[in-house]
Write a structure and sequence with these properties.
Order of helices and strands: EHEEHEHEHEHHE
Strand content: 15-25%
Strand order of the largest sheet: 3-2-1-4-5-6-7
Helix content: 40-55%
Number of helices: 6
Number of domains: 1
CATH class: Alpha Beta
CATH topology: Rossmann fold
CATH superfamily: NAD(P)-binding Rossmann-like Domain
Distance between the termini: 26 Å
Number of strands: 7
Largest sheet: 7 strands, parallel
CATH architecture: 3-Layer(aba) Sandwich
Structural class: alpha/beta
Shape: globular
Length: 197
């Protein structure tokens, strides 16, 4: 399969590329560190990415920016940033991707643990993650030509917890998370939210 991996230089995206790279033809995409680039907050940039990649069999998105902070300090602009990037970026990726994905192809998006286990400071991210999960469940009912759409909700990744000076013992190895993306890519599920723990 020919697979676009968005966020290919990030912690999860890099592990996904490694996990599928020997099995499938990978087109790595990132915001700034790849031959094909994309800004998820810019619909025209997503369209340009698909024009550059040509027809593909699958799209995996392991990217999406969002703001973390106390609800009282988050501004309208902070919420808009999260919605424009992680939420609408992935929604538009699916909407535009339909015309560039082969019959019976797949789209895999990413939410995160904060949709089901929020914490102080996660109001904007929890909102976006939960919205994405609802979008996937509903849009799966309307996907044409046998295209599947699913979303992975990863647990905290150990590497990320270490980078944030948080307790890594509650995290999941990134290689375990990457295996869930492979399972979805090669499986038959549709409209599912899969925990990667």
């Amino acid at each position: 399969m020919k697979v676009i991996v968005i966020g290919a230089t990030g912690t999860i995206g890099r592990a996904v590329v490694q996990a599928i790279g020997n099995l499938h033809e990978v087109i790595p995409v990132s915001f700034s560190k790849s031959r094909i680039k994309v800004n998820l907050a810019d619909k025209a940039s997503i369209a340009s990415m698909f024009k550059s990649s040509g027809r593909v069999d699958a799209v995996i998105c392991a990217a999406g920016l969002a703001k973390f902070g106390p609800m009282a300090s988050l501004t309208d602009a902070d919420f808009a940033f999260c919605i424009d990037n992680k939420l609408m970026g992935q929604v538009n990726l699916a909407r535009l991707g339909i015309d560039h994905i082969s019959d019976n192809g797949s789209i895999t998006l990413t939410s995160g643990i904060l949709s089901r286990r929020p914490m102080k400071g996660s109001t904007a991210i929890s909102l976006v993650n939960a919205g994405l999960e609802g979008f996937v469940r509903a849009s799966a009912l309307e996907m044409p030509r046998g295209i599947r759409i699913n979303i992975i909700s990863p647990n905290w990744v150990i590497d990320t917890l270490k980078a944030l000076n948080m307790d890594p013992s509650v995290g999941t190895p990134v290689e375990v998370v990457a295996k869930t993306y492979v399972k979805v890519l090669e499986g038959a599920m549709n409209g599912e939210v899969l925990d990667a723990v």
